[in-house]
Design brief:
Helix content: over 70%
Radius of gyration: 16 Å
Number of helices: 5
Strand content: under 5%
Shape: elongated
Order of helices and strands: HHHHH
Largest sheet: none
Mean pLDDT: 94
């Protein structure tokens, strides 16, 4: 398999994970704001926690970005996802506070309901 094919596969996987994690982040925030509950909220919280642990363990960098660079991302206008880099470069600044606020609101709702 050529590096171009590997890069395509990594970009495809990375884009899919990005979409799932963006959706999970929004679900956590919406659950925190509205108080809505359900099985998908718990799945979203679990995904966000796992993703956060992966980022921390990887030195606050996505490990798939390094794999994509290994196969040629950053050359010829190719990035590590199929999403334009001008959007993904703000991922931490946008989703970090969103996740923290959502989790904080969920925790406050849980503690106030228990008390």
């Amino acid at each position: 398999m050529t590096d171009a094919r590997r890069l395509f596969g990594v970009r495809l996987l990375h884009t899919a994970i990005y979409g799932v994690m963006a959706t999970a982040s929004l679900l956590v925030l919406c659950g925190g704001i509205t108080g809505a509950r359900g099985p998908w909220l718990m799945v979203a919280v679990g995904l966000v926690v796992i993703e956060s642990l992966v980022f921390v363990a990887s030195g606050l960098k996505c490990p798939l970005t390094a794999v994509a660079v290994k196969y040629g991302a950053g050359q010829d206008g190719l990035f590590d996802t199929f999403i334009p880099e001008r959007f993904t470069r703000h991922t931490f600044r946008i989703f970090g506070p969103m996740i923290l606020l959502g989790l904080a609101l969920l925790a406050i709702r849980q503690w106030s309901a228990a008390g």
